[in-house]
Amino acid sequence: xxxxxxxxxxxxxxxxxxxxxxxxxxxxxxxxxxxxxxxxxxxxxxxxxxxxxxxxxxxxxxxxxxxxxxxxxxxxxxxxxxxxxxxxxxxxxxxxxxxxxxxxxxxxxxxxxxxxxxxxxxxxxxxxxxx
Length: 131
Known about the structure:
Blueprint: H1 4-9, E1 17-20, E2 24-28, E3 38-42, H2 54-74, E4 79-83, E5 94-99, H3 115-130
Antiparallel strand pairs: 1-2, 2-3, 3-5, 4-5
């Protein structure tokens, strides 16, 4: 059975997309820990990030780097935190989290955002990535 992320890639489930390449997709986490929490995924479904072939792994990291630079412009913060957890969704992914403090990387705390706010934020981040 396809993971929820594969279903997003296939267009079966909508997302708040911020960037896309032939091999990777970045979108807002619908259960964010802070405003601007983005997920970067390979379009190919592989459960464990270190099981990605080397080319795709490097492509995903370069993609996340580009997304993080735009994210920092759109969501001013001290740094963009990076986490690879991957226990909840069996599809490799990188969390990019705008941080003011290390406490912002608390994955047991989530915020609520309205759909209109998510849509506007996704557009703002996408524009910052394109610059």
